[in-house]
Backbone:
């Protein structure tokens, strides 16, 4: 059976549109909210370096593998894996990659929407000038007050979920292009502005030092696991999001350079966000390890000090919300595409059911910050911590490892050559080495050392 050249869900009109969509998926809360706060919790420099290594040696090959498999299968990740396993006489159990991805997607979407709701709330706060000349205490208090109020949080979660469902019911291709074309450059611009502000504080050097000074003593196997999980999360890997998008990629586009560009852009945004946030942390005597509230306490402080701060601050949180929605769309796509294929269902209906399930799950995250703050699922992990930990640090790396193994060893050489656009012996060797050995071995070593410690 020959591979098809079209997907029933539609096709990106060009390679460039795929780049926009995949970058929209990759750049999100993971870069601006999560990367700085887990860097802060894990001691800074050592974490950042390991994270960068994970992006380069594990993330890049696995992203290529996802795009390649998606384009070869041209369906939702579940049906892509099923079809490819059949077509090339592999074990039908490979389809489990797709199922695990759908499950991980639900878990991630459930809390992602809650945090994106926080960003929406900050749009309104900023627009009201709530942080004008605010002190660190006021900024912290505003955030704590918001967190203590589950109803308020649910309201913003609901708004964000409704917006996500609305967009995905229209189809990923329409709508995405216009949004991303505008917001990406703007987001960059505002990050640069914040970076400029951070540079003017007397603590810029301290912030940069915190991010880049490498200390071996800070490294534990847990640090490495979290850095790897973050690499997967921020690049949207391991759950089929990029595979789903790859299914809509025209056959002629080059996978290697495309993936390189997306990962580079994603890394740049994360590093810029860290460099903007940590100097503000130190200049105001705040704690880098304060957790999920980090961005919501530091950046309002910066905007509160700037001329036209309310305007820039509002715009910034609008952009963060946009960045989050283009990611949320891609988190939903694997499940959505599967249900549409399987039941011939209307996208709109499927989108609503999916949104409702993730919304209900998300209530657990909302309560983790107030009513259930002292309820621990395992160890000291709240419901949110637990869902986040399992999806990001276990399911995504595991999924990614299996994806890369299949892409390297499960496909015939000619198919790999065709997809990568180069038919020569050495390409196949490099591919097998990178994608079939180095990337999965990296994940395996981190898993084993975490379990042993
Ligand atoms: N990469 C997104 C971010 O950094 C999150 C994401 C995870 C998107 C998994 C898709 C799949 O915010």
Residues:
């Amino acid at each position: 059976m020959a591979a098809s050249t079209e997907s029933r869900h539609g096709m990106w009109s060009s390679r460039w549109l795929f780049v926009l969509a995949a970058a929209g998926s990759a750049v999100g809360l993971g870069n601006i909210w999560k990367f700085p706060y887990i860097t802060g919790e894990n001691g800074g420099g050592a974490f950042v370096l390991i994270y960068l290594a994970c992006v380069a040696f594990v993330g890049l090959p696995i992203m290529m593998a996802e795009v390649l498999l998606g384009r070869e299968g041209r369906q939702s990740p579940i049906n892509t894996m099923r079809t490819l396993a059949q077509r090339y006489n592999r074990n039908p159990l490979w389809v489990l990659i797709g199922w695990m991805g759908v499950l991980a997607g639900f878990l991630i979407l459930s809390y992602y929407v809650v945090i994106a709701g926080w960003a929406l709330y900050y749009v309104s706060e900023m627009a009201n000038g709530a942080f004008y000349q605010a002190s660190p205490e006021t900024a912290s208090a505003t955030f704590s007050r918001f967190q203590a109020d589950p109803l308020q949080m649910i309201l913003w979660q609901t708004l964000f979920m409704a917006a996500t469902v609305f967009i995905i019911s229209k189809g990923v291709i329409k709508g995405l292009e216009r949004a991303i074309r505008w917001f990406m450059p703007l987001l960059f611009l505002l990050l640069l502005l914040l970076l400029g502000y951070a540079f003017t504080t007397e603590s810029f050097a301290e912030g940069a030092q915190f991010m880049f000074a490498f200390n071996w003593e800070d490294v534990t196997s847990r640090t490495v696991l979290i850095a790897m999980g973050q690499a997967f999360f921020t690049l949207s890997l391991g759950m089929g999001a990029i595979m789903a998008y790859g299914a809509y990629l025209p056959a002629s586009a080059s996978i290697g350079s495309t993936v390189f560009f997306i990962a580079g852009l994603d890394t740049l945004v994360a590093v810029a966000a860290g460099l903007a946030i940590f100097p503000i942390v130190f200049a105001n005597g705040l704690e880098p390890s304060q957790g999920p509230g980090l961005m919501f306490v530091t950046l309002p402080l910066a905007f509160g000090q700037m001329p036209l701060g309310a305007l820039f601050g509002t715009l910034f949180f609008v952009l963060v919300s946009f960045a989050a929605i283009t990611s949320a769309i891609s988190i939903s796509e694997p499940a959505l595409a599967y249900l549409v294929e399987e039941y011939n269902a209307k996208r709109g209906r499927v989108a609503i059911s999916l949104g409702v399930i993730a919304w209900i799950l998300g209530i657990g995250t909302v309560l983790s910050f107030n009513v259930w703050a002292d309820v621990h699922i395992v160890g000291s992990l709240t419901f949110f911590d637990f869902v986040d930990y399992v999806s990001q640090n276990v399911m995504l790396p595991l999924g990614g490892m299996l994806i890369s193994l299949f892409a390297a060893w499960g496909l015939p050489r000619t198919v790999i050559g065709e997809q990568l656009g180069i038919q020569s012996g050495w390409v196949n060797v490099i591919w097998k080495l990178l994608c079939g050995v180095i990337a999965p071995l990296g994940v395996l070593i981190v898993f084993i050392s975490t379990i042993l410690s």
